Amino acid sequence: MPRPLLLSPDRLFPSDPAQRDIARRLYREVAGLPIVSPHGHTDPSWFAGNAPFGNAAELLLHPDHYVFRMLYSQGISLDALGIRNAAADPRESWRLFAQNYHLFRGTPSRMWMDWVFAEAFGFEVQFSAETSDLYYDRITEALATDAFRPRALFDRFGIEVIATTEGPLDTLEHHAVIRAANASGEWAGRVITAYRPDPVIDPEFEGFRDNLKRFSDLSGEDAFSYAGYLAAHRGRRAFFAEMGATSTDHGHPTAATADLSVAEAEALFDRVTGAEVSAADAELFRAHMLTVMAGMSLDDGLVMQIHPGAFRNHNRWLFTHYGRDKGADIPTATDYVHALRPLLGRYGNEAALTIILFTLDETSYARELAPLAGHYPALKLGPAWWFHDSPEGMRRFRSQMTETAGFYNTVGFNDDTRAFLSIPARHDVARRIDCGFLAGLVAEHRMEEWEAAELAADLSYNLAKAAYKL
Amino acid sequence: MPRPLLLSPDRLFPSDPAQRDIARRLYREVAGLPIVSPHGHTDPSWFAGNAPFGNAAELLLHPDHYVFRMLYSQGISLDALGIRNAAADPRESWRLFAQNYHLFRGTPSRMWMDWVFAEAFGFEVQFSAETSDLYYDRITEALATDAFRPRALFDRFGIEVIATTEGPLDTLEHHAVIRAANASGEWAGRVITAYRPDPVIDPEFEGFRDNLKRFSDLSGEDAFSYAGYLAAHRGRRAFFAEMGATSTDHGHPTAATADLSVAEAEALFDRVTGAEVSAADAELFRAHMLTVMAGMSLDDGLVMQIHPGAFRNHNRWLFTHYGRDKGADIPTATDYVHALRPLLGRYGNEAALTIILFTLDETSYARELAPLAGHYPALKLGPAWWFHDSPEGMRRFRSQMTETAGFYNTVGFNDDTRAFLSIPARHDVARRIDCGFLAGLVAEHRMEEWEAAELAADLSYNLAKAAYKL
Amino acid sequence: MPRPLLLSPDRLFPSDPAQRDIARRLYREVAGLPIVSPHGHTDPSWFAGNAPFGNAAELLLHPDHYVFRMLYSQGISLDALGIRNAAADPRESWRLFAQNYHLFRGTPSRMWMDWVFAEAFGFEVQFSAETSDLYYDRITEALATDAFRPRALFDRFGIEVIATTEGPLDTLEHHAVIRAANASGEWAGRVITAYRPDPVIDPEFEGFRDNLKRFSDLSGEDAFSYAGYLAAHRGRRAFFAEMGATSTDHGHPTAATADLSVAEAEALFDRVTGAEVSAADAELFRAHMLTVMAGMSLDDGLVMQIHPGAFRNHNRWLFTHYGRDKGADIPTATDYVHALRPLLGRYGNEAALTIILFTLDETSYARELAPLAGHYPALKLGPAWWFHDSPEGMRRFRSQMTETAGFYNTVGFNDDTRAFLSIPARHDVARRIDCGFLAGLVAEHRMEEWEAAELAADLSYNLAKAAYKL
Which residues of A touch C68 (CB under 8 A)? Predict the structure, then answer.
């Protein structure tokens, strides 16, 4: 007989009764706050077209590399899971997931999934081999109904605003449709974009020169001259801002920055747009462009996000056969102190500029990032990110950042996901963990409860709105 | 008056009553499971010859570098402790240990020792200056009895299987004696070996060229030609497997791997077997051989263990006067992401291969190892190792690994010790800590208790058997 | 209406009732122990001249870079805060602090300040915009009274001994005045110096050559010859020791050490005292001099402290306009294993030598420092330092250091501060956290309560006295 699926109202709160009682009180006041999602990877076409999602596997298994990488790590083939394999029977792929659901014990994917199953779909029995078909059928049926179309879910989830992420070569046509729907009163959902220029900033990006060609076409500038290239950025940034963007995003392999003279930059630009690009030039160009982008942010007001430190596509065979974003990006040790100095030397003292730093290297929390953000006016700290978007990851973030940077140099929560249905679950985890963390401070008499209550609302809602100008 | 020696039945459980109650229930079901010890350094001659151990100092002080390094760090001379000093009176050395037993407060050595004193020898008063002679005499007397001979202790400790570690130059004669005793019904204890080829793989190992000579003799191959050298490995691996080995072990200074062409490898082999070996060539050869060994493991099914990151013999004076393994090996920062890529590029997607990674650099847990093991089918994570084989070390391991790698990419506990009497204590610490960790997840409603109960048995017993093919 | 300001008697104790009860009992016995402050940055002229402190902003805001860096990080100008700006109205600067006091929630500055407000000044309402003037006036008035003069506060705080830090070019005239006051019976307070030779050891220190000139004058040696330079050190060390010093202190950018031959050292000395100094030579000279200083410590008995790993003056603009020590020093990743080997190879086995290591890189705690200090007789571990002098920082220190190094390779607490009024608060935090940590060990049956009680006194008082020979 299948076991009942129950989400405890006390989940993720400390079990110490004194702390738990405080956490409950704090959480009660923030649980229902709207969701502000200032950084993520949902697909704007969902909200533009509002077409129904497909079957259970298409929605919940195929796009979620957190999930299929774990199954793959235990020897289950990606083909069998239906990853880039249209021949796979989605019901069979779903069964593999169900049979191996125990692998996710102790992981955030398990918590997010259970929330989706219980709260979004109303299941009352646990997901397992035994209930695999029941789940597959009920989810697939639900997805065909209007209540599970993207806009209906957006509204039901209480999302106040969500940011997607697009490259400079994107025409933002889906955002245009959404804005038209907003203007006509057809739908009130606020979906904005963010400017992620890696494809035209990273000389090692696939098709860099082709990208510059298209960058020229779209911007009406000659993106093969340095001056034209900068003008193209300015133009596309302005266009993105018109379409609602309040931020840019930069996903470099390291946090390296540089601040070259115009002459040096022009010479470098010529080299990296040439036929052969050295790794050192590519790195230097990315580094220089971070500083350039910070300068443009100071001009146009877009908040700058830096997401460094992932070794992308670590598994060559997998990359060749299945492409990007298949769970084979691995964090590396990341220096910030030396790396950011050129940029900070130029713009770090600008209180009107906001640069939000993320890291995958937790050793930098207390050692580098908290001291940097606790000093430079331009810097703020992004939340625990990616592999660290988890209960223990968030606790390490708070316990290692707060004493030096305080809470007010942080910017609330980012869900950073393309798994749309998990968004409420992810924000709920963050709110519960923050309330639990604050409860610990109150229970140890390091803070008063009224202060913790203020902070709970700030961390759940206010700081994200303020930092991202939403 | 000496104080009573009491081992609390609740030791190492969380003190929060909700968590403690769950931990007690989980532990009750796994406390009595047999010990599976898949990696360690006990001496097979003990079980072959079954001779009585000597006196208290010989058994518990002289071989335990965890213990005498701490005494040495506080200014007590190794000579006085009887380390490589036959002239020292063992009773006097033992007294020094007793007088300074407070130095071990808060360390795992203290817990293991107290278990040995209370459970193995039945002491009811604490070890101290006052009880030093009582301890010395009672232990030394007990060791002369049949009940304290190696095989009797092995049986009494509930050891199902134990692996020792031998080099390729070892004839495994003690293992042969044990296997004969098994076959004749004289003794049922299962003692297997593991293949640790560092002495013939590391060109910087003492006597490398002499080792190769002996490697040739034992294998009947010409280990001074690259082809013969590889054949010699294959031969010795097969012999070790015949003698029960299910694994190999590799203790390199770094995790560097390389994947050279045959021509490159042959040229490198010629250089490292020549008169002068550069540090870079030595490192490259070790790196290449890890990949070669992985390939052989894929062929012969031996599980591959990699134990990198110790700076061996950091204290030159000590090494000169007292030799290896005297407490002066110090961990260093260790990169895995770049280092393992050549090997993983070659064999990482092989689900039939098992490579168990260890680290002394805890910063790699959440940043590198959990993402790698949570993706590559060939990788599993060894337990908290050496300095981290401790309550807090194990908690850090679980809290930093689990959310990304899950529990099922880990392999249970290794005691990794030559301190035979402490083996049950070490496994008991691991079981208690794991039960406490799981109890925390249950108490925070992140897992159900039936799942935790399954996991407690897996972490205590099943995973080690499965991962090491025991 | 302002909220009441209350310091809970249970603050910083674990909230688990079992642990809290033990912590209370442990703390009760150590709360009143005298303060031993073996390393800090108070100004000896305070205790020599005993002049009243100025107004609230001058005492509590302007010198405390922990405080104004946080305000600066949120866009408040240093000018407005009165930092290097005599034109600022101190009452207005104080109001900025008051209005933004919420920024310090969760930071140690908040706890220290609240202690100063409640315990030193007797406030019963919280500091806030509303109470800013009340605070300013009452503090400023109090400071004009005899009870708030430096010597009176020293006595009231129960300080047994405090060490200040001076460079070799300091004439120690204030210490001479204090010692005369001691001798005459005018005041019994024990204020000693410590020898911090960075200005004459670091070739990159501002005015290095001028410093050497003055070093020659003060010592009567020719500090521009290597032999004279060493003799000058010996002379100044002896003078410092006469004035009470029991220790030296070395604040290098890295932990690099070297052990050059006399000929090599002389050649290097010539280069670094020449017109142009390369970065590599500067680093090598600092490295060599650490080993030289260790040798002198072995001769004269001064305890050696090494405080490496801060990137000083990271913010160029700020340094240019506001100078050193303005909150822009940022920790960097710091290697100890390779860096210290030359020094330890020479002196590490000397049990008569004490070298106290500090770090700003917590990743070295369990990986490098605990194994090093748990082996080498000459090494001890300084407490959690600077950014890590905080409840969570101290907990990480204990939980990551203790299992390998034990408690007895640590040296108690350092307040390391120039914020004189916060000294009792800082020691109190350390005692509370240590008692809480010990209570956790007792509650988990990893230690008995009588042992924890001994350790609580050792960590609060005895270890500092012993390690620093006070």
Answer: none
